[in-house]
Design brief:
The complex is a heterodimer of chains A (236) and B (468). Chain A contains eight helices and twelve strands. Chain A has helices at 16-27, 39-52, 71-81, 95-103, 116-129, 164-175, 183-191, 201-215, and strands spanning 7-12, 31-36, 59-63, 86-91, 108-112, 138-141, 144-147, 152-155, 158-160, 181-182, 223-226, 230-233. Chain A is globular and about 50 Å long. With 468 residues, chain B is of the alpha+beta class. Chain B contains eleven helices and ten strands. In chain B, a hairpin with a 4-residue loop joins strand 9 and strand 10 (454-461). The chains are: A alpha/beta (236), B alpha+beta (468). At the A-B interface, helix 1 of A face helix 7, helix 8 and helix 9 of B.
């Protein structure tokens, strides 16, 4: 792992004990964890962080079950003005919350109780992907144009507002130039982990992407789904 | 206010009293009519006709005419023409009344007992001073034979007041009208019941947001009362079910929080001590506990999702999806490799709850994968039959005892008798979840053990909505 020293990450979770344990655990992996015990505090800390920019958070870990304003509410508020990578902590079995979370712009999720090693792996995968070595800066397919350096995507020359994961998926599809990309590949590229069965994350991210592209006038079938295999871009 | 009671009471009372009044009226009318016929009996026209015929055509002509008239029922009475031997010229049997008349008018001093052929009657002679003024017309035939004409009102002559067609029409009209009125009254009483039935069926299917329609529950009678009671009951059920779900969610959250902390603490301990075997063992147990919580949550949630409307599901695709997920789970398991084969010749659609069916198929299939011997085959069979969709999952495992084959669908049943497998494993909820999920979809599930195979058979109903 070629991590720089001390990544700053913020955790919003009402379980204080868990926070301290995680802080301890993550410190062994060069991750500096800041803890907020409720949604309001978390949002305040993030806002201060955006404005100060001295010690910026690279990632947010967000528990969906929060007292007061709910995790999904927090997610909505944060996504309004930030594309900070977000990993949700959910109680498994609550598929509804999970899918809603992904639709609201979370990048990945981890069901509680989670394996801490797995958490570290996910954090690293998401942090690493934005620092991928880029051989080609600009990719183009049909009306979609992607700039890897500035991490910006445009459709018909109008910029698209994408989250990190959505951007990764779109750039992956653009790179393949209309060939089918399997869900496994997409999961590796965009989430930094292999595809697991029962996982609807990729599908949800794809449907978010479709919705955003549609807002810019693209057809729904622009991202074509091959059932059970994966997705491909169609030339319009 | 016992409104309905009075309604039923009054309608019964009305029906009975109207019937009684009508019967009395009809009786009275019949009596009047009879009297009218007996008293105002005009026979002139007939007599004149008869005498003309007797004059011109003789006795044979008269016989023909009389026969025709009586056959045609032309008059509201029967006409008898009697010769001197007191015989009807057509040889018909004479009504007793004619004997009486003869006795009175013709032979007033003759003892009536002597009249030949007269049927015996208990009452004896009329008073001597009674002399009715009616006369009996006498016809003299060409051969100087004397004939008397009598007329007797027929039974039909009373109702014959109307002709035959009108009579049938009135009968028909009366029957249909009474059927119609009874139908309307009954329907107006039964209508709320039908509504109640629909509502209770919906409630029993778990649609706890069902409410009795305002037009009934706002009524002031027992129906309205019943409607409001049903609503109150449903509301309570709804709240209980909400609480139950909320409770399950809270329990799972509260149980999972310490599990999460345990796991993190365990990782730290592993890092610090380097100890592996025991700590991994603990980790495994934590995961088992977590799985169990998930199953319980799923089990308690299965019949509670009333908001979810049934959708049209392509079973082929669903099964394909489930199988590929399970294959993925077993991909790296080299010690236990089982091939899953799908037999589905046609596309089968079903209207139901996809989540439920998915977890049913998953749990049954996982069960078969677990207990099927290494290097065997599991066959997933999908068939659309005339009245049901039949799905069978067959593995080559040992199966269970006949007496246990229903128990395996009970929560936390473990085949401790060693029939299915020697060591109990798993959550003990998989098949219970499957059963509950299938029942949620109005289907049935059963286990069959044969010599070589263990089969789970699932039947899903074909008509998607059987009621109304």
């Amino acid at each position: 792992m070629d991590m720089e020293i001390n990544q700053n990450i913020i955790l919003i979770d009402d379980d204080e004990e868990l926070g301290y344990l995680l802080k301890d655990f993550l410190s062994h992996h060069q991750i500096n964890l800041t803890i907020a015990n409720n949604g309001e505090d978390g949002i305040k800390m993030l806002e201060e962080n955006f404005s100060s920019s001295s010690k910026s958070f690279a990632l947010l870990i967000l528990d969906i079950m929060l007292p007061g304003i709910s995790g999904l509410e927090v997610l909505k508020k944060i996504r309004k003005d930030s594309d900070i990578p977000i990993i949700m902590l959910t109680a498994s079995g609550e598929d509804h919350d999970r899918i809603l979370g992904l639709e609201l712009g979370a990048d990945d999720y981890l069901p509680k109780p989670f394996n801490s090693q797995e958490l570290v792996a996910r954090i690293n995968a998401i942090l690493r992907r934005s620092k991928n070595n880029i051989d080609v800066d600009r990719r183009k397919f049909g009306c979609i144009e992607i700039s890897m350096k500035s991490r910006k995507a445009t459709y018909n020359n109008t910029p698209l507002r994408l989250t990190g994961t959505e951007f990764e998926i779109l750039s992956c599809l653009t790179l393949s130039q209309g060939k089918t990309v399997t869900k496994d590949q997409l999961s590796e590229e965009a989430l930094g982990r292999p595809f697991i069965p029962y996982d609807r994350s990729i599908d949800t991210h794809i449907s978010n992407l479709r919705a955003k592209l549609k807002n810019h006038g693209a057809a729904k079938e622009l991202i074509y789904s091959q059932r059970g295999i994966g997705y491909a871009l169609l030339e319009d | 206010m016992k409104n309905l009671f009075y309604k039923i009471f009054i309608s019964f009372w009305l029906t009975i009293s109207i019937t009684v009044c009508c019967a009395a009226l009809a009786g009275y009318y019949y009596h009047q009519r009879m009297e009218q016929i007996y008293t105002n009996f005009e026979i002139d026209e007939v007599i004149i006709k008869a005498s003309v015929i007797l004059d011109t055509q003789g006795i044979t002509g008269l016989k023909v005419w009389l026969k025709n008239t009586s056959q045609r029922n032309q008059y509201p009475y029967r006409i008898f023409i009697i010769n001197e031997e007191s015989q009807d010229i057509l040889g018909r049997e004479l009504p007793r009344r004619i004997f009486d008349w003869q006795a009175h008018f013709d032979q007033p001093h003759h003892r009536r007992d002597n009249i030949p052929n007269r049927p015996k009657r208990r009452d004896q002679l009329p008073p001597r001073n009674l002399r009715p003024t009616n006369f009996i017309p006498l016809l003299i035939g060409p051969d100087n034979q004397r004939y008397r004409i009598f007329s007797v009102p027929t039974n039909t002559s009373v109702s014959g007041y109307f002709n035959d067609n009108i009579r049938w029409f009135i009968l028909f009209f009366a029957i249909s009208l009474s059927i119609l009125i009874s139908y309307l009254i009954t329907r107006s009483y039964m209508k709320p019941f039908r509504h109640f039935k629909e509502a209770t069926v919906a409630i029993s299917e778990g649609k706890l947001k069902t409410r009795i329609s305002k037009s009934i529950s706002n009524r002031n009678d027992e129906m309205g009362e019943l409607g409001r009671d049903i609503d109150a009951m449903t509301e309570k059920l709804f709240r209980a079910s909400e609480n139950h779900q909320e409770m399950a969610r809270n329990i799972s959250h509260e149980l999972r929080s310490p599990l999460s902390r345990m796991l993190v603490a365990l990782e730290i301990a592993t890092q610090k001590t380097g100890e592996k075997i025991e700590l991994d063992r603990i980790k495994g147990e934590i995961n088992t506990l977590n799985e169990l919580i998930e199953y319980i949550l799923k089990y308690s949630k299965l019949d509670a999702s009333e908001d979810e409307l049934p959708k049209l599901i392509n079973l082929n695709e669903l099964i394909q999806d489930v199988v590929s997920n399970i294959n993925f789970e077993y991909k790296n398991n080299k010690e236990h490799s089982i091939n899953i084969k799908i037999n589905a010749n046609e596309e089968v659609l079903f209207e139901g709850h996809e989540d439920g069916l998915r977890s049913a198929f998953e749990n049954v299939l996982r069960n078969s994968m677990k207990y099927g011997p290494n290097n065997s085959e599991v066959i997933f069979d999908l068939k659309s039959k005339e009245d049901a969709i039949e799905i069978t999952i067959t593995d080559a495992g040992k199966g269970v005892k006949e007496s246990d084959k229903d128990k395996i669908f009970e929560p936390f049943y473990r085949h401790i008798h060693g029939n299915r497998n020697d060591q109990p494993s798993g959550s003990g909820l998989g098949l219970a979840i499957a059963k509950r999920a299938i029942e949620w979809n109005r289907g049935t599930i059963e286990a069959i053990t044969t010599n070589q195979n263990f089969i789970i058979k699932i039947n899903l109903p074909k008509d998607t909505k059987e009621k109304s």
